[in-house]
Amino acid sequence: MPVKIRLQRHGSKKRPFYFIVVADGRSPRDGKFIQKLGTYNPLTVPATIQLDRQKSLEWLNKGAQPTDTVRRILSFKGVLYLKHLLRGVKLGLFDDAAAMEKFTKWSTEHDAQIKKRQDDAYRNKRARRPMSGRRPERRTEGESSNEA
To answer: For residue 14, is it within any domain?
Structure first.
């Protein structure tokens, strides 16, 4: 049974929202799945991803094959890097503490980079918004626009 880690679409028309699931490769895209690993919302800037790293790592070690998009998501969240480090531990290249130290260092740098992207996106959004300073005043029925 070929097991895949893939996206399962939810949300309304033109407003996608995805669950990251483990499913049999022969089941339909939005059909039956084995386990839910997280969510992915591509509409936010940057995209919102919530993922259970431990469950994802377990399924990868069991041989589940991620689809291309899910592979990029797992890479972004550090699951593939963690798998790579744990393989190094298994081969005896370094110990478990060194692997976790490398991963935490990568994770803090990555989180800082994400925070910077969010701040830049927020600043760009604020810069594009017209800044009038005040609301236009409302005129009452008795006032005319030609008063001097």
So the answer is: yes
pTM of the model: 0.80
pLDDT of 145 reads 57
Q: Look at strands 3-10 and 35-41 and give their pairing.
A: unpaired
Residue 148 lies in a domain: no
Strands (DSSP E) contained in the chain are: 3-10, 17-24, 35-41, 48-51, 65-66
User: Letter for the amino acid at 12?
Assistant: S
Contacting residues for 3 by C-beta, under 8 A, at least 6 apart: 22, 23, 24, 25, 34, 59, 62, 63, 64, 65
Q: Fill in the amino acid letter for 67.
A: T
CATH number, residue 91: 3.30.1320.10
pLDDT per residue as tens digits for the range 120-135: 888 888 888 776 666 6
Q: Tally helices (H) and strands (E) across the chain.
A: 4, 5
